[in-house]
Amino acid sequence: MSLTFEGRVVLVTGAGGGLGREYALAFAERGASVIVNDLGADTKGGGKSSAAADKVVEEIRAKGGKAVANYDSVEDGEKLIQSALDAFGRIDVLVNNAGILRDRSFARTSDLDWDLIHRVHLRGSFLVTRAAWNHMKNQKFGRIIMTTSGAGVYGNFGQANYSAAKLGLLGLANTLAIEGRKYNIYCNTIAPVAGSRLTETVMPPDLVASLKPEFVAPLVLWLCHEQCQENGALFETGAGWIAKLRWERSLGRTVRQKNQPMTPEAVRDQWDQICDFTDATKPTSLQESMMSIVSVLSQVESGGEVSGNPTAAAASSSGINPIEAVGTKLPPSSFSYTHIQCILYALGVGMSTKDPDHLRFLYEGHEDFVCLPSFGVIVAQSVLMEGGLTSVPGLNIDFTQVLHGEQYLELYKPLPTSGTLTSETTIADVLDKGSGAVILMDVKTFCGEELICFNQFSVFVVGAGGFGGKRSSDKAIAPLPPPQRAPDAVVIDSTSTDQAALYRLSGDWNPLHIDPSFAAMGGFQAPILHGLCSFGFAARHVLKQFADNDPSRFKAIKVRFAKPVMPGQSIQTEMWKEGNRIHIQCKVKETDAVVLTGAYVDLHGAAEASPEDPPQAGGLHSELVFAEIGRRIKDTGSELVKKVNAVFGWEITKDGKIAAQWTIDLKNGSGSLQKGPHSGKADVTITVSDEDFLEVVQGKLNPQKAFFSGKLKVRGNIMLSQKLEVILKDHAKL
């Protein structure tokens, strides 16, 4: 699908030639209304003319586009924006492109050389952007481009003034990206290499001719389109090549100890380690950068040894040893639950009786009562909630510093609505991320001997890195970016102010989600929503949008937790369908902050969704069910006898005739199953067709409705039929 800018108003500064002209023409060609700004000055900032801007406007109009000229200096920022408002009534996109050169070696740079460059490049971009800011803020949309240069990023001889201004623009853009994010104002920076009046002074003529501005414009248009979610990024581009830049930082070295002076000799002696970029980190925010400094203060005050990383002292004292930890199997854990826990979870992730489609997840008497697939994380989460990691050798960590980083869940069978499941946990890997450690835990959950689901918990331990481990693992199930196009579907769902209080009833009792004073200690203004609650919202959004709320079609989900949601905020789930994989991204609607990234849900195709296999050679579906019941009676018969204390006779019909008889004796000894009628007298005898029996077992047919409709006939003590759930739903669901 082609990118269009119909209805958008774009201001390009310095658009009378070179890159600016190319931007203006490209935006107009795709439907934008364009303000072509150019003072008409020479490359050193002298003179003034309307000819350059007028010529570009004429080109645009000749092709049927919409454009007006503006001849003001960027130092008159308000006038530029007013031109847009007067001509088109709004301002959506601002490309800060205007610039001049006054190249001098540093010793020869005058005050005027310095000031004029900063006035046009840095101050001019500031003034025009400030004039546009509130208009973009009020309309909840804006895209801003700042233009830096390789001279600003790397430095260049004879361009001290230009380099300083250009790097200043990058700092300005990074801050605007942070402040504008919640208003859907995104700001990015480009460092273009293209032939223009400015570059012809520093490049050979043949190179200037080859580096055409038209090879840069497509990047600018993409960054300014409403589909693009890039924000706060820096790109180098030229000749059709585009690359994203980021900062890299060595692990560093702490060169002082408590109550001892820090000396230049200590710096000299550790210089090689300070400058060693092996296992370098890549901080992306001031907060992440400051984390290391705070860690150093804590380390030094506690009398820690000098280390090669601010977190290394914590790592050494915690004794993280991947060789000991990886492969460790935790003691098996069991999770017993009834329909009550399934319903509580569904309410905790935002389901409501206001939506008729939700009733099958909320009412145990519904003929299609089922469990939400994402409940699979609840049955396995005891490894985190009950301190299972404390028993792992080589993982003596500070559990107050543990954050849930990523989650993967895969289902092999629809989850039963009640029962006892057993989970087995293995430490799959331990990774050294410099500022912390990542622990991968693989959890397999069984119903008896049958594998029901698999979870991979990925937790980040702040301050536990620097132990010399590897940074990546082929055992980690990786998140995936969404397609670079508009979402195929968007669902917005409001959380309640009590959402966290309700979700915690599913077993995550962390006070961070309920106690304001505890949340304040964690740096939050109020208790935050559980990440796995947002996970549940996203999972059910996909289930409804693309699988008709059919849990049997749900195969797997992967998410990365990026930021928290506050109870009461709205979760906006954006979805892209790629075959049976649905890529998802979740945001807080009110702030536009992305909370779940790299996420996707895998679905079974509609034809794959039915879990039963057809009977072979004219056999009965029920044969498989009774075989499973018999196996379960061998394992837990004594317990079932205590619960049920009755003998059930079964008559399974096919084509209106009795095809098989079974007796389930849960009254005598430790229970038994036999094919054929009971030698004595059954307390209750149930007659049902093979097909209807299977639907009852799978929860698709409510036994009461089957009885009243005549599909299920009962002789003997009818009240005992209430105990069918213990036999069928707990122990026979295939």
From TrEMBL:
One of its GO terms (cellular component) is peroxisome. It is found in: Peroxisome. GO terms for molecular function: 3-hydroxyacyl-CoA dehydratase activity; isomerase activity; oxidoreductase activity. The keyword Coiled coil does not apply. InterPro entries: HotDog_dom_sf, KR_dom, MaoC-like_dom, MFE-2_N, NAD(P)-bd_dom_sf, Peroxisomal_Beta-Oxidation, Sc_DH/Rdtase_CS, SCP2_sterol-bd_dom. Keywords: Fatty acid metabolism, Isomerase, Lipid metabolism, Lyase, NAD, Oxidoreductase, Peroxisome. Residues 8-182 form the Ketoreductase domain. The keyword DNA damage does not apply. Pfam families: adh_short (PF00106), MaoC_dehydratas (PF01575), MFE-2_hydrat-2_N (PF22622), SCP2 (PF02036). Its main location: other. One of its GO terms (biological process) is fatty acid beta-oxidation. Belongs to the short-chain dehydrogenases/reductases (SDR) family. PANTHER family: DEHYDROGENASES, SHORT CHAIN, SCP2 DOMAIN-CONTAINING PROTEIN. This is Peroxisomal multifunctional enzyme type 2. It comes from Gymnodraco acuticeps. The gene is LOC117560874.
